């Protein structure tokens, strides 16, 4: 395994977004995009009718679109990423409200930009647990896109991050989480009293080469497997 260097996001030596300007995207959808989101709002409302009327679901979807538009480097994907983000937020609302039962442990990984470590950890956790653990990821200061080498490293082990996108910490998803894993470099934020908090000292992959990213990926894999074992021990009826 390649040695793990210090985290550049902590030292400030590497800027969050060194690759150029973020495209200017209107915070409100227009034209065909607006129409697509209207249809998505109808679909989401049909799925979660107990959470409010169609107008409130549409408003939440537009909020997802607006907050992702601030940093997204892929405006052509905003409608689909906003719909995915809104669906996750609504599911979290339903779990927190008790209208949706979730039998699986729920883990939220949080790093600085949600562009590398937290995305890889969430994908690894769901895969290594066989779907028995539900994982989400977020960033305290979301980047514009997932780092290309994170995509490459995960693709190498058969876990492509095709649908991954950086997103902020959402209050509803945070409330629905049972375990929150904080990576070095994540800015402080308020945590619900009920969540178990873990701190993982795994460096940011920003500025690394592919060999170093593979080392981080493999380190995350080991920690994820350890987390799965911990969660299994906490299950009712578990015996050593």
Task: Describe the overall structure.
- By secondary structure, the chain is of the alpha/beta class.
- The chain folds into 2 domains: 27-101, Helicase, Ruva Protein, domain 3; 103-240, Response regulator (Rossmann fold), CATH 3.40.50.
- It is built from 8 helices and 4 strands, in the order ααααβαβααββα.
- It has helices spanning 8-11, 31-47, 54-69, 78-97, 117-128, 148-156, 171-176, 210-234, and strands at residues 106-111, 134-139, 179-183, 196-200.
- A 4-stranded parallel beta sheet has the order 2-1-3-4.
- Strand 1, helix 5 (117-128) and strand 2 (134-139) form a beta-alpha-beta unit.
- Helix 2 runs parallel beside helix 4 (78-97), helix 5 (117-128) crosses helix 8 and helix 6 (148-156) packs across helix 8.
- It is globular and about 45 Å long.
- The relative contact order is 0.16.
- InterPro entries: Ptyr_pPase, Ptyr_pPase_sf.
- Keywords: Arsenical resistance.
- One of its GO terms (biological process) is response to arsenic-containing substance.
- Residues 105-230 form the Phosphotyrosine protein phosphatase I domain.
- It holds the Pfam family LMWPc.
> What fraction of residues sit in β-strands?
5-15%
Determine the structural class based on helices, strands and strand pairing: alpha/beta
Runs in which pLDDT lies below 50 for 5 or more consecutive residues are 1-20
Tally of alpha and pi helices: 8
